[in-house]
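Sequence in, structure out.
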Amino acid sequence: MVASHDALFGRIAVVTGAGSGLGAAMARVFAGAGMSVAALDIDGAAAEVTAEALAAELGVPTTAVRVDVGDAASVAGAARRVRDALGGCDLLAANVGVQQFGALDRLTEQDWQWVLDVNVMGTVRTVREFLPLLRARAGWRRIVLTASAGVLDPMVRLGAYQTSKFAIVGFGETLRQELAAEGIGVSLLFPAGMATRHLESSALARPAELGPSVTLSDDIQMMLASRPVTAGDVATPEHAVRNLLRDLLADETYVLTHGSYRDEYNRRRDAMDAAFDRMERDEEAT
């Protein structure tokens, strides 16, 4: 049975990366459904702007917390602050991710360390610290993890980012199985290209000790040349989350946002099916 929007009113949503872009758009959607919202971001001032705007415009309780998902203590502290301010968590959107362009043979040890620690371990830390709050609640509860359309249709010069998002899919699919018996649904969100400050905000968030985030002009050019981008492949964050609540209420495993990459995905799926066919023929022949 699919839950209705009424199931969300008065419940509590926690969104990481809520200071801008996709996270801010998610927070607005949740607040629009009558949910209290905790806006978390490494940019504490930006999180405050999101929280204050939602409270003023939509009249829902909000709180803002500065959190660095690369720091386990910071994430644990954020969970305590959300619990104290709003009373718990019914919906966790682990959305934070940083971007690093670059050819695989040019990416540095520090590039990999940064991307994997924030995108993969940051998600793991967020789920680990907020899961007790979800378990303490009853009724409708969800976790949504932000993956990437790049997992379904990989592109060049995005290797570190896409590798991290492949890991998120494996983590999320396993988490869904492990939490099903507790009635906590887990969904994976696959956003395609969006008009945001993601590259800029990523570079600003990189720890100084890891050196600067370097993107060369040919990285962007090669990425765009690897697959033509149509007008529908780049959207606003608000457009990307237009159906998110519908799919979360239905407890869908996968949520696609936009983009024209289905043919590329189908070719990849067909190649995998062909590998199964070869394996099964080989087994029959032995």
